[in-house]
């Protein structure tokens, strides 16, 4: 996918981040290759992909910590590494390790960080502190690394920054805290605040995002809403039939077909699911399970195998 080939319409005027044809090499390795990204005002946009996909490098360029080798990169209409003070006044970020003032309390550290972006919203701060189990009266030096990162996360999201950049925001959180933060992002953040998240555990960010950009090996694989991205993948189908299973391998819309006695496992192009199900119904359907492919499937290229089918259902001997 080339730069800017997402499926969102709308005016360029509300684009907080505009990236086109971005190339970046570190040493001899090309880390980003023809990357395109559009982030619109007020949206939660997740950049998802496995480790090494280039997500962190992309965020560091947007934060002005690195420059590009080629392409267009604009944040609030300027190149962030050329006008870092302008970008930093309007952007809160939590990237990599967090360094805080050890002599301050956690609450004071949050206030000082948020002061760089117009101050803190007390209601959002207090809700995040409770969500993450943080005591603002406790001194920073008594917080370990993961807790310091939580303090920075509170400051970024409860401050008045127009843009928030978060790399692996769920790192160090318990499962209940992850669930609560996803809900918080959807319901409690400032409505005019733009949030750009990056992560490699797709299920952690998918439900929080308005838009998703998927990266792999330094390139953008796809970009769109969660539903749009998922529609590009296949539906996983398993069926148990009354008679020997039909051979569906001749259908172009069926992939990775596995037949074992009266059981069928395959992947089906979602647009053609109905005609495949009709073929299965003709054989007498005892049971049917299906699920849409997840974003994890899209990245990993999950495929059914005879060994997996036998492991799940037994040898049948």
From TrEMBL:
Membrane topology: Peripheral membrane protein
Taxonomic superkingdom: Bacteria
Record-level Gene Ontology MF annotations: ATP binding; ATP hydrolysis activity
Pfam family, one: ABC_tran
Chief location category: membrane
Annotated protein name in UniProt: ATP-binding cassette domain-containing protein
GO BP, one annotated term: response to antibiotic
GO cellular component: plasma membrane
ABC transporter domain residues: 17-242
Compartments, record wording: Cell membrane
Family: Belongs to the ABC transporter superfamily.
UniProt keyword annotations, A-Z: Antibiotic resistance, ATP-binding, Nucleotide-binding, Transport
């Amino acid at each position: 996918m080339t730069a800017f080939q997402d499926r969102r319409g709308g005016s360029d005027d509300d684009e907080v981040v505009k990236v086109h044809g971005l190339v970046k090499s570190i040493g001899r390795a090309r880390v980003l290759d023809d990357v395109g990204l559009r982030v619109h005002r007020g949206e939660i946009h997740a950049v998802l992909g496995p480790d090494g996909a280039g997500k962190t490098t992309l965020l560091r360029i947007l934060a002005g910590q690195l420059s590009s080798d080629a392409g267009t990169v604009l944040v609030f209409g300027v190149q962030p590494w050329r006008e870092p003070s302008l970008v930093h006044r309007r952007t809160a970020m939590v990237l990599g390790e967090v360094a805080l003032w050890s002599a301050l309390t956690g609450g004071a550290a949050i206030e000082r960080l948020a002061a760089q972006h117009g101050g803190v919203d007390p209601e959002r701060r207090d809700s995040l502190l409770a969500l993450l189990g943080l005591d603002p009266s406790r001194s920073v030096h008594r917080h370990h690394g993961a807790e310091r990162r939580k303090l920075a996360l509170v400051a970024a999201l409860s401050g008045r920054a127009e843009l928030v950049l978060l790399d692996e925001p769920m790192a160090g959180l318990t499962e209940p805290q992850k669930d609560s933060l996803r809900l918080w992002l959807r319901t409690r953040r400032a409505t005019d605040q733009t949030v750009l998240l990056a992560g490699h555990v797709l299920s952690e960010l998918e439900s929080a995002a308005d838009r998703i950009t998927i990266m792999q090996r330094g390139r953008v694989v796809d970009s769109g809403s969660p539903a749009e991205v998922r529609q590009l993948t296949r539906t996983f189908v398993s069926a148990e039939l009354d008679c020997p299973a039909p051979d569906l391998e001749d259908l172009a819309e069926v992939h990775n077909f596995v037949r074992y006695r009266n059981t069928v496992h395959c992947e089906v192009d979602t647009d053609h699911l109905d005609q495949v199900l009709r073929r299965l119904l003709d054989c007498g359907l005892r049971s049917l399970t299906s699920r849409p492919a997840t974003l994890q499937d899209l990245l990993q290229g999950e495929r059914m195998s005879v060994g997996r089918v036998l492991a799940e259902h037994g040898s049948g001997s």
